[in-house]
C-alpha cells in the first residue's frame, strides 16, 4: 500500500520536530539544511519552501520554546501563598528541563546577542513577575517595596542558574534539588531584616 502524502501542515510540524532535535544535538552552527532534509527524508527545497532556510526554522523552534516555558513560569506564579508560588515555579522549571530537555538546551545554549526572543528576555519577564509579587509582600513587612527588583533578580538568577547546572547533572532528583532551592529562597525571604547591613552588625 502506498504511503499517504503528508499535508503541508503535517510536513511543517515534522520539520519543526526534526529541526528541534538537530539544533539540540548539534547546535545552530552545526546544523545544516542538508542535515534536516536528510533526517526528514525530503529534498532541501522542501525545507526552504516552508521556512526560507535554517534561520527561519530555528526562529520558529525558539519562538515555540519561549512561549511554552513562559507559560510554565507564568502559570506557576499565578496562585498560592508566597511559599507555594516559589515551590511551584522551581518545580515547574526543573520539570521543563527534565521533560523538554532539547528545547531548554536550545534556549540556554544557542541564544545570540541581540535576539529579541531569548532565554535572557524570558528571565527578565520572570523577574518582572516575581518583583511584582515581592513588592506586595514587602509592603506587608515594612520593607522598602522598590528593593523588590534586587531580590527578584537574585531569586530568578539562582533558580535559572541551578536549572542550567541540573540540565547536565540530573542528580539528585528534581524534587531534592527543588527542596533545597526553596529552602534557601523561603528562609532567606522569611528571615529578612528591614535594614540589613554588611558585616552582620
From TrEMBL:
Entry keyword set: DNA-binding, Transcription, Transcription regulation
Key word Cell membrane present: no
Biological process according to GO: negative regulation of DNA-templated transcription
Keyword Transcription in annotation: yes
DNA-binding region location: 32-51
InterPro entries registered for this protein in UniProt: DesT_TetR_C (IPR054129), DNA-bd_HTH_TetR-type_CS (IPR023772), Homeodomain-like_sf (IPR009057), HTH-type_TetR-like_transc_reg (IPR050109), HTH_TetR (IPR001647), Tet_transcr_reg_TetR-rel_C_sf (IPR036271)
Record-annotated HTH tetR-type domain positions: 9-69
A molecular function (GO) term: transcription cis-regulatory region binding
UniProt protein name: TetR/AcrR family transcriptional regulator
Species this protein is from: Corynebacterium curieae
